[in-house]
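User: Assemble these into one structure.

Assistant: Restating your components, then the assembled model:
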Amino acid sequence: MTNPSPNLKPLVLVVDDYDDAREMYAEYLEFSGFRVAQARNGQEALDQAFALTPDIILMDLSLPIIDGWEATRRLKNDDRTRAIPVVALTGHAMTGQSDEAKGAGCDSFVTKPCLPDELVAEVRHILAQRGVAVSH
Amino acid sequence: MASPVPVAPAPVTSADARLALAEQLLACDTARACAEAVVAWLPRHAQAVASACLAREEPGGRMGCLAAKGLSDAQHAALKAWSDDDLSHPLADVLAQAAPRFFPSARAPLPSPGPGGLLAVPLGRPGSPPVGLLLVWASGPTPPPEVAWVAGSVGPFLARQATSGPLGASGSALFRRIIDAVTDPVLLTDLEGRPRLANARAEALLVAHPDASHGRRRAVHLNQRVFSAAVASTASGGVPGLSWREIPLVDPVEGLDLLFELVSTRVYEPDGREAMVSVLRNVTDLGRATQALGESYRRLRATEREARSERHRLDRVLDSVADPIILSDPSGGTVMLNEPAEKLFTLPVDGGRAAQRRVRTNHATFASFLANLLDGGSNLRWRGQLSLMDPASGDTLPVEAVASKVLGDSGELTGIVTLFRDRGEALAKARLLERLKEVSTLLEARVQVATAELAEQNEKLRRQAIQLEQASAAKSQFLANMSHEFRTPLNAILGYTNMLLQGVSGELTPPQKRNLARIDSNGRHLLEVINEILDITRIEAGRMPLHLSDFGIPELLHEVMAEMDPIIARSKLTVSAQLGAKLPPVHSDRQKVKQIVLNLLSNALKFTHEGGVKVLAEYAPSTSMLTISVEDSGIGIDPAYQQKIFEDFQQVDSSPTRAYGGTGLGLSICRRLADMLGGRVSLQSTPGQGSTFTLHFPRRPRRT
């Protein structure tokens, strides 16, 4: 578990190619007391993840360059990032997508639209499970 | 045949001497006695040196010397040795000539007792063949007198004896031979039919020898009885003259039945007794022949009758044939016509001159046709197409004629049968057939066109089906994409609204808050619509499979109530959940059951302003069906709309300014989901009093 300083606020990597959604979640997460890093596609997500080792990653599945599933698979296949929980975000409500996301290694699955406070509640819930201190 | 010629009149002797000889002759009952009387008389009364008389002693016997006088024993023996079958003898010549002959001098082998001549005189009735010879040897060269008278007297007498023979009860061998020679049975009987005299043939039938077999004696006895009865009946009948009758007798030897014709006549015997002479004639063969003849005649009549009826039947058969038939003799003359032929070849009763001419024409046409077979060729059959005329109407009748030779047993031509077939009908049929073929071809062509069109249509339909399928898939894909595209901006709208309302960007004034709340509420409604459309799309695309699991209804209802709690709290209605007794665990799609109940409950809350909502779960073991009903005290639903509300996008009030929110897709989705579970959603409602929506679904799906 990469948690350099217990005093630091948890770092959340928000991956979404739709700027409005990504920035909205980022703003609300910061508002809610998290540090936030952002990525616009799968490749950036991988780069950021390896560089920053965030505490949790919010991963939109429909992404350019490398899609969310593939990015998650790579993260979960890498020792440096394997332990980071990944919450899949998708606007595709079709059945089977959550299964597919879990197959790729996602730890949770959230269907958009998802209100910022609901998402933050989910993030807190998962981090609490992992024993990461989260300020309220 | 020569007959004795009277000799020259002799000198008159004493009448007494002649009378004495006549008396003597009358007393004689045999030829020999007559001969002896004559031979003894001649030397005494006619100056004869010697005399001899030759005759037959009995009828049928040989002619020989019966008496002689004045001859030596040697001369007598020589004379006896002669037989009338020795035709070279001079006496045979005398008999053959039947005329007296005088031999003046001795002539061998005739005996010559003296120097005088010999006069040989044939004896017999004048005009009949001689029956004997009288030989008188004269003393001189002239014939002695009185010989002619003696010959004339004794001749008839001998002749009588020679023909009739000796008669009487004793009978003679000659008589027996005569009657035995008769092939028919001849009998002399008394009036009772008892035989006194019978010839050999009669004896064979009516007299049994003591040593004969039993069967033969029986047969004879039978014959005797039949014969006696017949004779006695004839005798007692008293019919004068001959009487005929037939009697059946049995052949004692062969045992065959014989039929005899009996001819009887009444006679008187010399002693004056009455007797019956019967002659039997075997008519067995005649009877058989008669019978056979009768049978033949009967058969002939029967055959004739048969032939007549056969002919009659044939006539009727021929008449019943619709085609004209003519039977002609070998020379072409018409023997017979059947009725249809008569119409063509005989003049109609009221036929005029024109009809007459047409019949003649027909005859001529037929005759020239028939000539093909009559010209002596080896053809047995001739076929031709003729044009006849209807005598009555004058219409032309095209016919096909087939003439066939009728041959006898030995192959000779006995007649010709000609059959006419109406070609008019055949031609009409052919025309009809042609027309039929045309129509058929036309029809076939049409069918082909139609088939091709159909195939084309099918192909079009198939392509359309594929296109539809593709379109449907495209639609589903489009809706899925659209939902994503809707959700993405909606996510931002709802998210930012939420953030603003939470004061992320600073405190808001009450009007700002109120406006933001409206944005939020409309955004959520839009999201609801999108989600429901997506659900229907998924159901229709078959992309919402059943996820079966075991679960409990109480837990499910608890979950639903918990989820609805915020709305229930806002509604200020009394909401209660009630569980029936013995609710079993259920094997179904939990998510879908929950979705239906949620929907029904949210509807109930939406359309109820006061009162309460009751949720009731029950189980019917008899049908294994579960029911979850949601009863409200709301506005109710008009019966006219109770079916309609289960359709897509339908609310009772569909106007854009309707009082109640919602997409109108909720019940439609419920109906579809209940369907998938093998159940249904029912409704009971009274406007103004409330509605009860009930989900019925099986405890276990019937088809898994």
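Residues 116-129 of chain A form the longest helix (14 residues).
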